[in-house]
Specification:
Layout (H helix, E strand, L loop, with lengths): L6 H11 L9 H10 L2 E9 L2 E13 L3 E6 L9 E2 L2 H18 L3 E6 L10 E3 L2 E7 L4 H7 L2 H11 L4 E5 L4 H15 L6 H10 L4 E8 L2 E10 L3 E9 L8 H15 L4 E8 L3 H8 L3 E4 L1 E6 L15 H7 L4 H12 L5
Parallel strand pairs: 3-5, 11-12
Antiparallel strand pairs: 1-2, 2-3, 2-4, 5-14, 6-14, 7-12, 7-13, 8-9, 9-10, 10-11
Helix pairs in contact: 2-7, 5-8
Length: 340
């Protein structure tokens, strides 16, 4: 956790660094630390009392999977933010020392740009974040969308769907959709508490968007607004209502919201290259922004915990057949021990 008296200095440094996103905001350590109940570390480099580099870390620990040091779970990127590469090397040095002290399986640093360091011997580049430039009005962006996308949005608008924005008052509806969708994907679900913590710590930057049909929530998203980028890290829609095109209406409303807030970019969130979600987001005109996740591996391989490496296929298939209520009870305890 970042000491209270150091938080203004962190924020001043991040503002000075001109980051368009919100991922290294010190409030993430507080929100995710409370949500997962894991210990957090805030590595800081300073010169003459002035912050010149930061590295937020979380110590992920579970009986099932072991120990990891990650910057940061849930987020697509956080990692090392510095003024120069010498400082970056010093922060990674300290992170490596901490990984040894904690006896973790590996240290995982989630970057957009690769950091050169001899200890970071493995990396993963199969994930990207999909971004759409918003340097114009809603009307102009609408006109730039492919006709097939506009057709889907219009179809949804004719279904009698309603779209609501809010915070904790929409959390139940959001989580009903989210947890159901995660079950269908075969993925252990984050606890509702995580989203409560995000909404609490980012009252002016985080909000929920929910699409209803006749009072039933059928699609939902968490939107997080950074200095220049609005991101939707968690988006879900019920497969049973796919014919309504609610997912397309949801994304269009998210894009409109970002434009209304004067954002330069809408980030559709993380995808695996050439996956179905990657193709869907590409149809909206989103372009892939590389993610470079770098590793200091002490035990095993960096991809051991990735659900797409094949070793968890049987468990995924079993999970898809469980009642949603069971996955809500069991899932959060599992996923908190995975560097997801």
């Amino acid at each position: 956790m970042i000491p209270t008296d150091r938080r203004p200095a962190w924020r001043e440094f991040l503002s000075r660094a001109g980051l368009p996103g919100i991922h290294c905001d010190p409030r993430w350590l507080e929100a995710l630390g409370e949500a997962f109940r894991h210990k957090t570390y805030a590595l800081e480099a300073s010169q003459d009392g002035r912050v010149v580099g930061v590295l937020p870390l979380m110590y992920v620990k579970s009986i099932l999977f072991g120990r990891f040091l990650v910057s940061l779970p849930y987020l697509s990127w956080a990692g090392v933010i510095v003024e120069d590469e010498v400082i970056a090397g010093a922060l990674v040095d300290r992170a490596v020392e901490l990984a040894d002290e904690l006896d973790v399986r590996y240290l995982e640093l989630r970057h957009e740009v690769e950091r050169q360091h001899p200890a970071l011997g493995q990396r993963m580049t199969s994930k990207v974040t999909m971004r759409l430039a918003l340097d114009c009005s809603c009307e102009a962006v609408w006109g730039q969308l492919r006709s097939v996308v506009r057709t889907q949005v219009r179809k949804a608008e004719k279904q009698g769907l309603t779209v609501d924005w809010g915070g904790r008052e929409l959390l139940r509806d959001f989580y009903d959709v989210f947890s159901h969708n995660m079950r269908d994907l075969g993925t252990p679900v984050f606890g509702r508490r995580m989203f409560e913590c995000i909404l609490t710590h980012f009252p002016d930057q985080a909000e929920l968007c929910v699409v209803h049909l006749g009072g039933k929530a059928i699609a939902a998203a968490l939107a997080v607004h950074g200095p220049q980028i609005t991101e939707a890290p968690s988006v879900s829609a019920l497969q049973a209502y796919r014919s309504t095109a609610a997912n397309s209406l949801l994304y269009w409303r998210l894009i409109q919201r970002a434009i209304e807030r004067g954002q330069a970019v809408f980030d559709f969130g993380r995808s695996t290259v050439d996956s179905s979600t990657f193709v869907f987001k590409r149809k909206w005109g989103a372009e892939p922004q590389p993610l470079v996740w770098q590793y200091y591996v002490r035990k095993g391989q960096a991809n051991d915990m990735r659900p797409d490496n094949g070793k968890y296929d049987r468990m995924i298939n079993v999970w898809r057949r469980l009642p949603v209520g069971v996955t809500r009870l069991v899932g959060p305890a599992i996923v908190r021990g995975i560097p997801s």
